[in-house]
Amino acid sequence: MNADEAAELLGHCSGFDNRQPSIVAAKSWASALYDVPLDNDTKAAVAAYYTTPPQNPNERLWILPHHVRTLRAKLRDARLENFQYEPPAGELDPNYLARLRGQRHAIASGRIPAPTRAPMLEGGPSKEFMRELEARGWQGNRTVPDEDVSAGSLADTVRRAGPLGVECPACSAALGRPCHSGLATAKHPLGKPLAKPHTARIRVAAGEPPPDMARQAAEEDRIREASRLALERIKAEQAERKAAEAQLEDDAQEVSGE
User: Fold this and answer.
1) How far apart are CA 110 and CA 79, in angstroms?
2) 127 in a domain, yes or no?
């Protein structure tokens, strides 16, 4: 795309966003789209950009060169979705790469209608081939014997991998559901989902025996009580130290007054 073609493209864009094209803008767009021709796909990319509403309704749409390049490539790739190379008659094709590129370009540019569906495989094993298989003992597709595959038996044998494959013993989160905190909110009545499963759930998923929740709760209470006593002891020591420092200051003042 040269500067004149870029100026024409900017004029096409101005019909959507009311921009004021300039010579400087045309040269800049030409340098950014130097390998993109001004064709119907390029203009269709502009229309596709302004057809999609912005995420913020108050935001102004303003197309840039990289939008044109990306959307044009998507339009052309969509035509190649069901592309199938058509080789010439015979087994050898010395011009394979040139023929492949030509066929892809013809469909991507829209010069040849794009195939509407992917080609399907046709035919099957020949009768001679099937007779050879049967002569060697083949009896058709493998059959599965009848077994009890009730929902209960499947639920007992099929499990999701990882901690989410077991019920959480800490918060009672169901299979496949994330662990949650104990604090209910308006948005999360059962508690806010946690990014990481509880430690007890991880251990159970690893095959360790489930923890004794009552014993674990008692241990947590003991730790909290020990922390509370330690905090009170620290506060008491700080108070005694401040009192001793204040007494030293008073004694120093009395000595200096004498």
Assistant:
1) 8
2) no
